[in-house]
Amino acid sequence: KVLVVGMPTNTNCLVAMHYAKKLGPQNFCAMTRLDHNRVIAAVSKSFNVEPQNVTNVIVWGNRSASQVVDISKAKVNGTNININEQKVKEITEMIKSRTNKFNKMRGASTAASAANSAICHMKNWLFGTKPGDYVSMGVIVPENSPYGIKPGIVFSLPCTVDEKGVYHIVEDLDVSDELMVRIHESEKEIVEEYKATFDILNQQS
Length: 205
Fold this sequence. Notes:
Radius of gyration: 17 Å
Oligomer: single chain
Largest sheet: 3 strands, antiparallel
Distance between the termini: 26 Å
Number of strands: 10
Strand content: 15-25%
């Protein structure tokens, strides 16, 4: 199992897949867990609960400013939550800014936060996700094109992982029209990065 962390994470993951001929695409992930964990931290702070009591948040798309923070399915203590639009915007902007306000408040480094997120990601990828919860994973989009996303790119999607360490994209979620527009904007950015990167690689080969 290969977890790609370095930016641009989604495109770097595609490059790694391309050159690691003996490993299948299912063995690769791009890490969006740092952003996923930050969303959980923001929601837990808003509701004054422990982070482990927040579930079902999603980070869609590219690990960049175009990524889409989705808390429309989020739960606190297993119950659906209501957050006003202003709070949603605040959380989204905080995640996009990558300032990691929570780490600054407690004096920890962003590097430590990323390392912790990699551990969280690998723990779920190896041993499975909690029943009823899903996590954000940058995975290869399959041919059936869930949510209309272009097959063959690496895209952050909500995933569950079974006890054998196999991830499964959650494909049956209701996604609002507004979110879907932003999701496809992020898709467009990944496709452009992919084309630019492989144009360079093909010139060098």
